[in-house]
Sequence to fold (245 residues):
Amino acid sequence: MAIIQQGINGPFRGKVGSVIGYTLNGQNVMRSIGKRRTRPFTELELLNQAKMKVTSEYLGRIKPFVKFGYRTEAPNGSRIGAFQLAQSQVRKHALEIDSEGKPFVNPAKVLISKGKLEPPTNCSVKAEGNRLYFRWDYLKRGGYHRLLTLAYDGDSFRFFRDLGEERRNGADIWDLHNLDLLEQPLHVYAAFRDTITGEISDSVYCGAIEPSVPSVPDIDRSHPQTPPAPPSPPSGQYELAFPDR
Fold:
């Protein structure tokens, strides 16, 4: 059953026969219900499905941050949402095929934000202990824009900060915890945003932090120690926490 919302000639919400009406990003949309497929998928269709899967897996774990980064490109009322724009960018520009013919996401080609501001120039990052050190060139423009950063290993380690140093400072330090627990490369992205207008820049790939090789502590294994609780993220920094799998 469907509900008519604005009179007989207005949009409807619900199902009428094989047609479904609903609201998407502020717009009224209708679509038909697809028929069940019986023939097998072609190789090209299977490849396209694999591309969709790896794209969704990479971006899905950082969806809130990506939606924040693309929000100016998809204002209220847009037919295509912020997350869908990010997925499109990855599919068009960041997917590659490995030696076995399987698609994968190249993190260096991913944009976690998109906008009209000037992006960071020659931005680099290095790690020392539990800190990330950023440097970039200041070109005497947009000096009050603030640095936005994302650190992501493609899996469970993901940190986001939307209020870093100003562009004119040319450098920033980001305190993170548990960098010593990395098991795979940590990909670091940066962008600038205007905290007054809300405008943002395209992100840039700053580089990858490789996992360190921890030394084996010399402890008495007959008396196991309880590890200390990790500290809370600093102000302006966000962490996604998930239960152990």
